[in-house]
Amino acid sequence: MAQADGRSARPETQQAQVAALLAGSVAFCAGGVLMVSSGEATGWLVLVFFGLCGVVSVTMLFSKNNYLVLAPAGFTIHSVFRQMTISWSNVESFGTYRLRGSSTVMFLYSPDFPRSRALRGLNRAVTGYDGGLPDTYGLRADQLAALMNDWKQRCGASPGSSSAGPGC
């Protein structure tokens, strides 16, 4: 966790993970070049796809915009291309979901939260959760989920209320 004080916390993306993604992209791009040079047309697809992955990886590697902010009003997910803030009152709870050997933090929205109902239904049918975080920001998924549940319990006002809970 990069920064923490009594009123906010800011876990950041691990640069080693992004560097590994970049290295994999470069390796697959090299494979795509070899495929194209031997006359395989599908090599172009490999080259374009992993070339784009490499561009995104380089952007993420040198960007300072991949982090999560936990604050009394809610949490904000910052990524290279956008940011999204969700109020604690709009979330019921946080948990973890394991996919292909990797765990991530997922969450359930409050029943009256209006955003993206159709997508939430699909997500819930597949994972049991409505949404998820794009990263674990250098923490284990279970640690981050526990941290976020703690923040929700301390700071999460009920839906429709603007005040944070005691101790936040």
Mean pLDDT: 83
The shape is elongated
What is the share of helical residues? 40-55%
Percentage of residues in DSSP E strands = 15-25%
List the domain count as a whole number: 2
C-alpha end-to-end distance = 19 Å
In the sheet with the most strands, the strands line up as: 3-4-5
Provide an overview of this structure.
This protein is α+β, with helices and mostly antiparallel strands and 168 residues long. Helices cover 42% and strands 23% of the residues. The chain contains 4 helices and 8 strands; from the N terminus they run E-E-H-H-E-E-E-E-E-H-E-H. The protein has a 3-stranded antiparallel β-sheet. A 3-stranded antiparallel β-sheet has the order 6-7-8. Strands 1-2 form a two-stranded antiparallel ribbon. Strand 6 and strand 7 form a beta hairpin. The N terminus is likely disordered.
